[in-house]
Amino acid sequence: MTGVAIAFLILAIVVVWGGLIASALYLRSRPEPSSYPPGGTDDHRDDSAPIEHDT
Fold it and tell me: What is the DSSP letter of 30?
């Protein structure tokens, strides 16, 4: 392997693992809310099933 290939390999590893670590830290500091506004999660509609399309 050439020096350029090794440099790009290290750069790719840093970008991928750095993004993973950054996203994990972000989710740890800002978790999902414990309560949602009315109608946000389940608004108790009387739907029988999801829409089915003929394909």
Answer: S
